[in-house]
Amino acid sequence: MDRVSGKVALVTGGAQGLGRAIAELLAREGAHVVISDIQEQLGASVAETVSGSFVPHDVAQEEDWKRVIASVIAGSGGGSIVNLSSMEGIIAHPEMAAYNASKGGVRLLTKSAALYCGKQRNGVRVNSVHPAFAWGPLLEEYLDAQPDREVALAELQDAHPIGRLGDPEDVAYGVLYLASDESKWVTGTELVLDGGWTAA
Q1: If both were cysteines, with which of 28, 73, 136, 145 could 17 make a disulfide (CB 3.0 to 4.6 Å apart)?
Q2: Is there a single domain that holds both residue 159 and residue 185?
Q3: What is the mean pLDDT of the chain?
């Protein structure tokens, strides 16, 4: 229960879904978790649950980033950045060009930042995680929008060679590894968490 003991973890989008699962796991493993989100009530509630803190944060606003980062790193040094991408940042889909481009951008931005931090010798590692379909609000919305929810769910499950969709904790454990000192020699890489999807 101490894989990230003594560390401060900023979890953007930590109010729900994968972000919440990541925040909860990091807190259980000893980190002080700072949750940032535009959903202030939800975010504050999660922060209270994990005995952490909450800061309002719109990730699309540069000034918000400056404020949040300044509050998190005061007296800190080094660290691990884990960017959430997608398997769609590695493989392409014929009807998801914009999404592929954005998630592929996260993948290469991660590598570039890792090289920059390495060159600066500042002790910061940068990696990305690439999940396939994992349970959460976005997946629920997708399934609810399908003509037959059960058929769509079965098709998604069958597309994962492991035979099931991911749980939020499946992704959170990958983030935990990259945030911990267990991965102290890992930077500029992508951790694929896809139930075997991209192996096909």
Answers
A1: 136
A2: yes
A3: 95
